[in-house]
Amino acid sequence: MEHYTVEQVADLLGLHVKTVRNYVRDGRLPAVRIGRQYRIAKGDLAEFAGWPAGAPARRHAEVSSVVQIEGIARSEMDRVSTMVLGSLAGAPHGLHVEFAYDEERARLKIVVLGGLEASAQVLRIVDALVRE
């Protein structure tokens, strides 16, 4: 029998992890405690979510990307980071972008974590800014 973690269930249902934990603690979502974590059976999740019996869980894919830009001055790095962060307004939940600038080497690293389309959109923006 397949089991899910609280984090996996939250992702599948589009809920916050704390919400799923509350459902488990309230007894609305059956779960088994293994050590310090809960495990939710696939059938119990399907029943809770109202999915037809045997319905496959929603597929989910994520991407992790690191973009490294060489020879970029601080002023250019500020512009790129501001433009990228500005473009994230209204971005899907779960998209995470971080910047690390090494002034000595004039090197910018951009870490992008999230869904495929949202991450691709960020990478397209970075590409356009670097080509300018």
UniProtKB/TrEMBL annotation:
Transmembrane segments: none annotated. It comes from the Bacteria. Signal peptide: none annotated. Residues 4-49 form the Helix-turn-helix domain. GO terms for molecular function: DNA binding. Pfam families: HTH_17. This is DNA binding domain-containing protein, excisionase family. It comes from Nonomuraea jiangxiensis.
